[in-house]
Amino acid sequence: MQIRNFSIIAHIDHGKSTLADRLLQATNAVTDREAKEQLLDSMELERERGITIKASAVTVFHTHNGEQYMLNFIDTPGHVDFGYEVSRALKACEGALLVVDAAQGVEAQTVVNTYLAVAQDVDIMPVLNKIDLPGAQPEEVAMEVEQVLGLPAEDCMLVSAKTGQGIPELLTAICERFPAPRKSLIPEARALIFDAIYDDYRGVVIYIRVFDGTIKVGDKIRMMGLERTHQITELGKYTPKPTKVKQLGAGEAGYLVAAIKTLADVRVGDTITSELNPAAEPLEGYEPPRQMVFCDLYPATTTKKGTDFEDMRDAIEKLSINDASFTSQTVHSEALGFGFRCGFLGLLHMDIVQERLEREFDLEIVQTAPTVSYKVDIRGKGGEITEIEVHNPADLPDMGSVMAIKEPIARVEIMVPKEYIGDIMKLALERRGIYKTQTYVSETRELLTFEIPLAELIFDFYDKLKSTTAGYGTMDYELSEYRQDNLCKVDVLINGEPVEALSLITHRDKSEARGRSLLVRLRKQIPRHQFEIPLQAAIGGKIIARETIKGFRKDVTAKCYGGDVSRKRKLLDKQRKGKDRMKSIGSVSIPQEAFMAVLDVGE
Amino acid sequence: MTADHNNPSPPQGQRPPFPPSAPSGPTAVTGLPVFTSQARTTPEPLAEAFTRSPAPVRSLYIHIPFCAHRCHYCDFYSIVDTRDRAEPFISRLIEELRAQAPAAQGQPLETIFIGGGTPTLLPVPLWDRLLTALDSLYDLSLMRTGMGEWTVECNPETATAELFDRLARGGINRLSMGAQSFNQTLLDKLDRRHNPDNVYRALDLAKQAGIERTSIDLIFAIPGQTLEQWDADIRTALDLGTTHLSAYALTYEPNTPLTARLRRGEFEPAAEDTEVEMFEHAGRVLAGAGLPRYEVSNFAAEGQECRHNLAYWRQDPWLAAGPSASGHLLAPGGLAAGSHRWKNTPRLDTYLDHSHRGFAPVNDHEPPEPPRLIAETLMTGLRLREGVDRTGLLARTEALGLAEALRQAAKEHEDSGMLVVDAGRWVLSDSGLLFADGIASDLMAAVL
């Protein structure tokens, strides 16, 4: 039997999941009756947002030229936040279907995904989808594919996942054009873990791609990286229903269950080998995912602090069980009490986690503005330089000992209609972007490439791009490197007292403007007190901006007669409750909103 | 089997204390009835309270809702009547006064206050009916001897000799004159329809009718008003021989045309510094003239304080009749048991059309809760220069286990010198008085 392993990669909404479903139907893996939209997306949230979060591997069988083909396809997430997952899915494949909407054309994400596939050295087959749409321009889009991605226009397959048009031809091309998996290099078993999920009934389910030898049910296996051993209790394939098999041979993909209780006991990218007859070297793995975006999550209600925090802790623990790519640690904020500092792969990942906490665990959450992870060189007492990672301005040591601050830089691809190029250049430069290239896509569109600090991207850059281009611009990014820049910590002092929760890391050229804008917001959020409150922004000891909240001189209602008693009592009670929710810094009461609004300072 | 066995309603003669038909309206989860602005009923526990007062109620407020015109700063309930509803109103009011009368327990009333609206807009024949009815329903003997205090609010432009004569004969012995200012420009800013001359004339007429006690209402911190203009208003009031003066800082109440105009930026409100300066200036000038401040906004010669308002501020009970009127009745058991507060429907038509054994539809009823009464005592009492009875309050809070919290809350303000302990009382200092709301709210939070 022939085997073909491939992934489907695409820009969001270009029809990746629909195509996957159609392939399942065309190979009779599911009957028409069973077919429901986007079968591979299992989570409610995924279905609602139309995006795929977790990769799934599905095996179907197809007969081509009288020969039986086992097609293993590995669904990938469509967003760059999960680029890591895209890469590891690709690692298990020899081919990738690059789906492009025949009406929309090549988008930024198409470009970034192609880069990922090229980097993994897989064969890419462009598939122009939605050719049934009245606005489809397959010829023009095929030219874009050639122009921008360097893939020959005549290689493009034309399909409509919706109507099924072109699907048989696509199956033929998959069998004919994608290479067969390589033969075993060594007799000992070696399988790559390319994903793992947590299942309430079976514990951890590991997705593997066998490269060498054979793995059987009952085998004692060893994870070469973690050096743990387990006994296989179940092997199988999703067809797409889980179907148990006795063994998985070289070139095959499937799942493995071995009574593993938590995802922490599995490292994606690790190599599985036989405990009794182990391979000498592991397969080439991949870097574990890096959390690049951080924010704090706090229970929204602080009145019954304790219990809300406990509920949140439970929820976060449960969530980490099936999402190993998000990290959390307990933090305490002067303003918001106890909460969690969480690390995410990117902005979308952060949104998804927050939404899942709210939806699946019924929690109300206060989320602080996201920050990125900085690498900071600090000089110790003996003069030695050490590098630490900082993702909260409050954790930054005294600027005196800070030798350098390095920040993550993103390589950003932006696809825009020509008329917006000037605006986008301006936007990118405002965000400390460095222009790299401009690529002709079609008569109407260009692809712009910039290097932009991630910290600048995470503040409403995407919204700005959308509003600047009337919604037509698309973007995607990959992290390229850490780069040193003239970054500094801006401290905020309220009534002379530094408030760590309000400090921020920013470029020195922007520090004064950001400091000022922060103080202006603070001034609006902090109620007047009986005394004057100076607000200051400072770098090191140097004040760079100042605002003042004037003291009020009276707090007494003119009239309070018989009919006013109930009304006034309720009013005072309400005011008092507002005051109780505030945080005292010295003798100044600061409402929670002040901390929140301040964290939103984007410009 | 007779029908009785299946009938859950109690047999005749054993009616439950609160017939299911009486209090309607939605019921909150706490089980307490919730009364909305659409309320057309009187809660039975409140109706009962009028007959179960632990002591005779000695004060009465009557609200006359009619105005010739609504002033732009005013948020009191008043209506410009376009239909002739004054006659049916008086009939309905008398019915309500009759229903409430048992609370006086046959004892003479000590204070009556008739406010509005513009009570003096009511035609004399209707006053006639009202005064006659009051005389028959309540013991007004103290009013006749001058031992009692009976005030009617008076808009200067409505004063007539005939009206004042009738009021004086009925027992009214005090007028509260809504002068607001003696400066025509400032009166125009407030959208008042009278002119300063009306005030002089009205005061003369009162004197001629034999109504000796008058109070003058003034407003300060009017947009554009200078300290000199404010000083002139105070001195004019003093020159007129008034022995009681209310001086209110102009307040921008929600849902008033004045506030809407402020929001539209039609004018600049007075600066806070100016307002404080005027507040303090009034205190100095009036004290010098023998009318010291006895409440945040009220000044009087010794013995001339408004006893009716003092009843409010000292948390005494009072009856209240008329649309939007608010009253206060102690629960059986007295102070320690808390008190009922209620507010009649503000809508004249609802008031006219609905009657619960004579009682008015009630918009808002707060049943007795001892901590609430303590909080209210602090709130209104700290506004008085006499302060509140610290010893008594601590004893009452002790019984509720809240005394320590109250002491703690007070300590912060005692330390800052704004709250002073003096002869068993808590009294706000001069500077503390300007922050009465915040201080009261801190203390109230300790008991609520």
CATH class of the largest domain in chain A: Alpha Beta
Q: Can you tell me the number of structural domains of chain A?
A: 5
Largest sheet entry of chain B: 9 strands, mixed
Low-confidence stretches of chain B: 1-37
Number of helical stretches of at least 4 residues of chain A: 14
- CATH level-3 fold name of the largest domain in chain A: Rossmann fold
Oligomer: heterodimer
Rounded radius of gyration of chain A (Å): 28 Å
Number of strands of chain A: 34
Report the span from N to C terminus of chain A. Answer: 60 Å
Largest sheet of chain A, in brief, is:
8 strands, antiparallel
Chain pair sharing the greatest interface: A-B, 23 and 44 residues
Shape of chain A: globular
- What is the average per-residue confidence, as pLDDT of chain A, rounded to a whole number? 85
Q: Helix- and strand-based class of chain B?
A: alpha/beta
Number of strands of chain B: 15
Helicity level of chain A: 25-40%
Low-confidence sequence ranges of chain A: 45-55
Main attributes?
heterodimer, A: 603 residues, alpha+beta, Rossmann fold, Elongation Factor Tu (Ef-tu), domain 3, Alpha-Beta Plaits, 5 domains, eight-stranded antiparallel beta sheet, 26% helix, globular, B: 448 residues, alpha/beta, nine-stranded mixed beta sheet, 17 helices, 17% strand, disordered N terminus
What does this structure look like?
- The complex is a heterodimer of chains A (603) and B (448).
- Chain A is α+β, with helices and mostly antiparallel strands and 603 residues long.
- Chain A has five domains: 2-177, P-loop containing nucleotide triphosphate hydrolases (Rossmann fold); 190-274, Elongation Factor Tu (Ef-tu), domain 3; 293-367, 2-Layer Sandwich (Alpha-Beta Plaits); 374-484, Alpha-Beta Plaits (2-Layer Sandwich), CATH 3.30.70; 488-602, Alpha-Beta Plaits (2-Layer Sandwich).
- Chain A contains 14 helices and 34 strands.
- In chain A, the strands form seven sheets. An eight-stranded antiparallel sheet of chain A has the order 11-10-16-7-8-15-12-13. A six-stranded mixed sheet of chain A has the order 2-3-1-4-5-6, with helices on both faces.
- In chain A, β5, α5 (138-149) and β6 form a beta-alpha-beta unit.
- The longest helix of chain A is centred in the middle third of the chain and has 18 residues, at 305-322.
- The N and C termini of chain A lie far apart (60 Å).
- The relative contact order of chain A is 0.09.
- Mean pLDDT of chain A is 85; it is low at 45-55.
- Chain B has 448 residues and is an alpha/beta fold.
- Chain B is built from 17 helices and 15 strands.
- In chain B, the strands form three sheets. In chain B, strands 7-8-6-5-4-3-2-1-9 form a nine-stranded mixed sheet, with helices on both faces.
- In chain B, β14 (419-422) and β15 form a beta hairpin.
- In chain B, α2 runs parallel beside α3.
- The radius of gyration of chain B is 23 Å and the shape is globular.
- The model of chain B is unreliable at 1-37 (pLDDT under 50).
- At the A-B interface, α13 of A face α10, α11, β10, α13 and α17 of B.
